[in-house]
Design brief:
Strand content: under 5%
Structural class: mainly alpha
CATH superfamily of the largest domain: DnaA protein, C-terminal DNA-binding domain
Number of helices: 6
Distance between the termini: 43 Å
Shape: elongated
Helix content: over 70%
Number of domains: 2
Order of helices and strands: HHHHHH
Oligomer: single chain
CATH architecture of the largest domain: Orthogonal Bundle
Radius of gyration: 21 Å
Number of strands: 0
């Protein structure tokens, strides 16, 4: 069974664009094909697809492109390359967590530690019932 995630369309593409340009110190409208620019645009397109209702064509227009295929390539192929570039992957996951209101890894660890303590107390209670 596949998990279904509800995508909250709460961000605007301008907010996402501004955040990425600040985080990566790039201009997304640049025609530059260097890796730094390509990965930044791929992250932008992926986050926009997840957190806005923009189509591929509309996203292409937001960065001055005329062809939606560039956006599709970035989302479907370039994002796989981004996964192996630690710097860019960390920025993507950080922004994805912020935009999606997801807990950080530290927050998840803290929650799990609390659950472990609760379960240890339950187990101790059962031990006392068996022994006593």
């Amino acid at each position: 069974m596949m998990k279904q995630y509800i995508k909250t369309k709460t961000m605007t593409h301008e907010e996402i664009k501004e955040t990425i340009e600040q985080q990566l110190d790039v201009r997304l409208n640049s025609r530059n094909r260097r890796r730094h620019f390509t990965y930044a645009r791929a992250i932008y397109f992926k986050l926009c697809r997840d957190y806005t209702d923009k189509t591929f064509t509309e996203l292409a227009e937001t960065v001055g492109l005329t062809n939606h295929a560039t956006v599709m390539n970035a989302v479907n192929k370039t994002m796989y390359d981004v996964e192996y570039e630690k710097k860019y992957w960390n920025i993507y996951t950080k922004l994805d967590r912020e935009f999606g209101k997801k807990p950080t890894a530290e927050q998840q660890i803290k929650q799990l530690k609390i659950k472990v303590k609760e379960l240890e107390q339950v187990i101790e209670g059962y031990r006392l019932k068996i022994i006593g």
